[in-house]
């Protein structure tokens, strides 16, 4: 199996019991050690949505390919336009989109032209249909028009040789169209990283199984599957792994053989970290962090074999927050995406009171909406427990208060990360 190119020397400081690691510092350490997928593949344009462009794509032609009319109307020589009063033009033909007009336009003549049709040689101006008076085989045109109006120049959108889509761009609908606009039918993209994921916990059951008293349905594998799919990797679902050394070792080995990255949930909090720690240390180089973030404090990161490893907390909201903040950007970096950061933040007035401790970054599930004056306002969905997954479904954004922030009174302007960026 092709492997990503690992970064140079991997050098983790194993923190015994570190102080809380700031979010920025954790992000920096992850970014410094993420492997990058080196392989590329060529795919039909129709399959290229959400893929990452592996090399600059240059337009081999001008777009548009020919100077053409932006309106239905009459094409003429701008020099013939009247400065004042009116002037008559003899209509010598018509040209539709997709056709050509084979003669050069003579002085004082006009050609009826449809939107998109190439301008006849000599013509440089189009007068809209609605602004002319047709009299037999002539049109009468008044003053006040500008030479060159209603014309799209060849190469106005892209010149031959221009970089149309830069290396590292995620192909979205606009890029699909841009690539099509110069006839590109195949595009070279980065191979999708394979990401293996599993849930850990003896208490977990899969939806569809029966659930005895005390058992918990595994929701993390479903949120992870959704987020991995949306970010554009190839997810490999390895199911539920029970809390024992041998099962964990086998699952990690299998994951490392098949995947470029591994994402697990559960088993990294202080209570259960010990055997997980030993197992991970035996298979790779993994650091266990306590991050100054809420929800989502414990996080393990490192390499298992050649695969990047993320051990996320077990609590379902913490899984989504840590994915959003750490795993998503790291996988985007792995795919070579140019700007792998989470969605840009907006500012909005917070109408809720938020309790906050200084010295950690807190993510509040919230709803961004317009107040009765039409201004953006954001309110907390209420309870903040990190097991309350339904609040993620109620919310459409996070309010993010950084380390320095303290409790927020209603009316304060806060930073908001809308979920449309939540991969
Ligand atoms: P842990 O980090 O393994 O101690 O788990 C913390 C909490 O999250 C416990 O209440 C677990 O039952 C819960 N939890 C862990 N994994 C999952 C999962 N895959 N789906 C739902 N809840 C989970
Ligand atoms: Mg557990």
Largest sheet: 6 strands, mixed
- The first-to-last residue Cα distance is 26 Å
SS content category: alpha/beta
Give the overall form. elongated
Hetero compounds: adenosine monophosphate, magnesium ion
Per DSSP E runs of 2 or more residues, the count of β-strands stands at 26
Low-confidence stretches: 1-10
Radius of gyration (Å): 30 Å
Task: Estimate what percentage of residues fall within beta strands.
Answer: 25-35%
Cross-sheet strand order for the largest sheet = 7-4-6-5-9-8
Q: Average pLDDT, to the nearest integer?
A: 93
Alpha plus pi helix count: 7
Percent of residues in helices: 10-25%
Please characterize this protein's 3D structure:
- The protein has 423 residues and is of the alpha/beta class.
- The chain is 19% helix and 30% strand.
- It contains 7 helices and 26 strands.
- The strands form 7 sheets. Strands 7-4-6-5-9-8 form a 6-stranded mixed beta sheet, with no helix packed on it. Strands 16-13-17-21-20-18 form a 6-stranded mixed beta sheet, with helices on both faces.
- The longest helix is centred in the last third of the chain and has 19 residues, at 316-334.
- The protein starts with 22 loop residues before the first helix and ends in a 5-residue tail after the last strand.
- The structure holds adenosine monophosphate and magnesium ion.
- Adenosine monophosphate (AMP) is lined by residues 199, 201, 203-204, 216, 218-221, 265-267, 269, 272, 313-316.
């Amino acid at each position: 199996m092709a492997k990503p190119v690992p970064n140079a020397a991997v050098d983790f400081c194993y923190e015994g019991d570190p102080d809380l690691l700031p979010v920025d510092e954790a992000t920096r350490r992850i970014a410094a050690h993420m492997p990058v997928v080196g392989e590329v593949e060529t795919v039909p344009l129709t399959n290229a949505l959400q893929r990452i462009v592996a090399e600059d794509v240059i337009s081999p032609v001008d777009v548009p390919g020919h100077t053409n009319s932006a309106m239905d109307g009459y094409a003429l020589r701008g020099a013939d336009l009247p400065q004042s009063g009116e002037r008559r033009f003899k209509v010598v033909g018509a040209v539709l989109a997709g056709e050509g007009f084979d003669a050069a336009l003579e002085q004082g003549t006009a050609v009826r032209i449809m939107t998109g049709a190439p301008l006849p040689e000599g013509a440089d101006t189009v007068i809209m249909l609605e602004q002319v008076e047709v009299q037999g085989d002539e049109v009468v045109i008044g003053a006040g028009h500008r030479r060159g109006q209603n014309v799209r120049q060849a190469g106005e959108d892209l010149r031959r040789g221009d970089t149309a889509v830069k290396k590292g761009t995620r192909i979205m609908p606009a890029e699909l169209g841009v690539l099509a606009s110069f006839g590109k039918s195949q595009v070279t993209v980065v191979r999708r990283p394979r990401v293996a994921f599993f849930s850990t916990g003896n208490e977990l059951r899969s939806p569809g199984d029966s659930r005895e008293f005390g058992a918990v349905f595994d929701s993390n594998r479903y949120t992870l599957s959704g987020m991995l799919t949306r970010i554009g990797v190839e997810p490999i679902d390895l199911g539920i792994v029970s809390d024992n050394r041998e099962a964990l070792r086998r699952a990690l080995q299998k994951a490392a053989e098949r995947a470029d990255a591994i994402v697990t949930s559960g088993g990294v909090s202080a209570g259960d970290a010990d055997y997980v720690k030993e197992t991970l240390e035996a298979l790779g180089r993994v650091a266990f962090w306590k991050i100054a973030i809420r929800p989502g404090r414990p996080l393990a990161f490192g390499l298992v074999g050649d695969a990047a490893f993320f051990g996320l907390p077990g609590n379902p909201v913490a899984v989504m927050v840590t994915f959003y903040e750490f795993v998503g950007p790291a996988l985007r970096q792995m795919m070579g995406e140019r700007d792998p950061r989470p969605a840009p933040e907006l500012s909005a007035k917070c109408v809720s009171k938020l309790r906050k401790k200084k010295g950690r970054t807190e993510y509040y599930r919230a709803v961004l909406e317009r107040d009765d004056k039409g201004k953006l306002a954001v309110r907390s969905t209420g309870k903040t427990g990190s097991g309350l997954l339904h609040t993620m479904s109620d919310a459409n954004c996070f309010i993010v208060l950084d380390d320095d922030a303290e409790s927020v009174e209603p009316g304060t302007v806060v930073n908001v990360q809308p979920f449309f960026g939540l991969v």
